[in-house]
Amino acid sequence: MAYCTKCGANVPESARFCQVCGQPQAAGTGANPAPAAQPQAGLSENMAALLSYVLGWLTGIIFYLIDRRPYVRYHAAQSIVTFGGLHILRAVIAILFGIGWWWGRGMGMRMGGGLFLLWGLSLLTLVLWIYCMIKAYQGERFKLPIAGDIAEGLVR
Questions:
Q1: Angle at CA 149, nearest 5°, toward 154 and 42?
Q2: 52: Cα separation from own chain's centroid
Q3: Which of 81, 86, 22, 113 is nearest to 5 (CA)?
Q4: Structure pTM?
């Protein structure tokens, strides 16, 4: 298989244009030239996108600041918005129901409802976290309903 002279993607021998970037290719040369632009040494885009979700908004901020690839930056921004928002929502629910580090005040029905909400939100966060990591590693630029639009705005 040949490589694109512009982006380094694999292209079929008979391709006239790169399927990734659209760069015209020298078709039918039979040669397997090395890519002109060497891929970045280190993490692949898929792995970097997955890692931007690993510790929620924290790794999202790290990858948003250090990685300039659009695919990685999009997932990092989506991680910041999604899991940062869920983190803030959990804190607000805890404050409203009087649930703190010490379980001394607010015991009873008021706290029970708050715990139920927090457990439900935590379960939702866990499922969403696993889903986001799997989809990012598979190379899909999926968009979460609200956070995806905000993330696209941050990447532009």
A1: 50
A2: 5
A3: 22
A4: 0.63
Q: Are residues 8 and 51 in the same domain?
A: no
Single-letter code of the amino acid located at 52: S
Of 64, 84, 91, the residue nearest 129 (C-alpha):
84
Does one domain contain both 97 and 141? yes
Domain count, the chain: 2
Q: Which domain holds residue 70?
A: 45-155
The answer to whether 79 and 59 have CB atoms below 8 angstroms apart is: yes
Where helices occur in 21-146 by DSSP H, the ranges are 45-54, 57-66, 70-96, 109-137
If asked whether residues 73 and 8 sit together in one domain, one would say no
pLDDT digits (tens, 9 = 90+) for 36-75: 444 445 788 889 999 999 998 999 999 999 988 888 999 9
Tell me: pLDDT of 79 over 90: yes
